[in-house]
Amino acid sequence: MAKRILLIEDEKLLVENIVLFLQSEGYDVLTATNGADGLKMAQELQPDAIICDILLPKMDGFAILETLRQDKRFETTPFIILSAKAEKSSIKAGLELGADEYIIKPFSLDDLLKVLATHLENSN
């Protein structure tokens, strides 16, 4: 069975590129374009991993991460932040809240795939 990935990102072109790439690698990819919908989808569908931007409409990625990490069902779910926010304070905040990885935009899809595969393997 394909691993289910939830992508929470509001940049349409980036969403399309990531979805097509991950689907071509055998992943089942679900998407949300704002934080509130992303949190709701995560809680209802319990994906195998979450890839999330920080700057999102309705609820930011840090709030999503913090909320999910307080739920026992998501304690070990890989959570990868994708963000253009490259400040050390943002990276530190994301990792302290429980993100498994913080990837700065722009990034290569191959690098994202390697990070995702590693964290999915480690979460089993």
From TrEMBL:
InterPro entries in alphabetical order = Bact_response_regulator, CheY-like_superfamily, Sig_transdc_resp-reg_receiver
Biological processes, Gene Ontology terms: phosphorelay signal transduction system
Q: Which residues form the signal peptide?
A: none
Q: Which domain of life is it from?
A: Bacteria
Response regulatory domain location is 4-120
- List modified residues, type 4-aspartylphosphate: D53
Keywords of the record, alphabetical order, are:
Phosphoprotein
Quote the CDD domains the UniProt record gives. REC_OmpR
Q: Which protein, by its recorded name, is this?
A: Response regulator
